[in-house]
Amino acid sequence: MVAPLVANRAPTGATTGVAASARPRASARLAFIDNIRVFLTVLVIAHHAGQAYGPTGGDWPIFDAERAGILGPFFSVNAAFFMGLFFLIAGYFLPGAYDRKGAGAFLRDRALRLGLPLLVFGLAVFGPLTYLDYAGSPEGAGRSFWSYFFRIYLGEWRVEFAHLWFIAHLLVYAAGYAARRRFARPADRRDTRRLPVPGPRAIALYTVALALVTFAVRVRFPVDRWVNLGIVPAEIAHLPQYLSLFIVGILAARGDWLRRLPARTGLALLAIGLTAAALRYAYGLGGWRLLAAGGLNRGSLIWSGWEAIICVGLCAGLLTLARERFNTQGPILRDLAANAYAAYVLHLWPVVGLQFALAGVALPPFAKFALVTLVGVPLSFAVGALIRRLPRVGRIL
Question: What pTM did the predictor assign?
Answer without folding.
Answer: 0.91
